[in-house]
Amino acid sequence: MPDPTDAGPGPSQPAPQIPDPSSGLPISPTPVRQLQAPDLQACLALDGAALGGFWSESQWRSELEGAGRLCLGIDAANSGAPAGLVAVACGWLVVDELHITVLAVHPAGRRRGLGRQLLEALLAGARARGALHATLEVASDNQAALALYGACAFETAGTRRGYYRGGQDALIQWKRIAATESGSLESGAR
Predict the structure, then answer these.
(1) In terms of pLDDT, which residue wins out, 165 or 73?
(2) Model confidence pLDDT, tens digit, residues 140-175
(3) Cβ pair 141, 168 in contact under 8 A
(4) Is 140 exposed, middle or buried (0-12, 13-18, 19+ CB in 10 A)?
(5) Cys staple from 98: which of 128, 134, 135, 150, with CB 3.0 to 4.6 Å?
């Protein structure tokens, strides 16, 4: 089974093109890689820039080192962001479900398709490991994230009132990611 962190074009398969929102011209996707313990400081720096320091060092360490975790990242090549890690997506595999814990893109690398590229790689990695569903929480006022998740066929399944530090509600998003017999993905609410 191929490793989704190495997902790239095969010998006879061209790389998919992502349109650059500022110019409309296609740009090549940036390689997605598996994050590991040595990436701790880069994750902390990205968290500070993209999320205002949402997670502590111990939380990031657990994310990078814990069993059943998937942590993927994209480095800054051609992203316009400072050198280093520019995007990260992590999730926990619990039985047959992927619980997406974080998806963050450095402000200088946003609107370039990196979040979607990472989300799709994370879902593919979870599916390859037997996940049938994916779930996440997103702030109810995070329009950019809601647009991304909606474009990837996530649906709102509930609300967690006052979930975030600032008192914002979280929307529980859900998606079926199992392959159907025809090989395409199913999506929809439970």
Answers:
(1) 73
(2) 999 999 999 999 999 999 999 999 888 889 999 999
(3) yes
(4) middle
(5) 134
Q: Where are the alpha helices (DSSP H) in the chain?
A: 40-51, 57-65, 114-128, 143-151
Find, among 58, 49, 35, 38, the residue nearest to 80 by Cα. 49
Give the whole-angstrom CA distance, residue 133 versus residue 126.
9
51-81: buried (b, 16+ CB within 10 Å) or exposed (e) per residue?
eeeebeeeebeebbeeeeebbbbbbbeebeb
* Cα separation, 137 vs 135, whole angstroms: 7
- Indicate the pairing of strand 26-27 with strand 18-19: antiparallel
What ranges do the domains of the chain cover? 30-176
Task: Report DSSP state, residue 189.
Answer: -
In this structure, CATH architecture of domain 30-176: 3-Layer(aba) Sandwich (3.40)
Cα separation values, 167 from 48, 50, 115, 149, Å: 20, 19, 25, 22
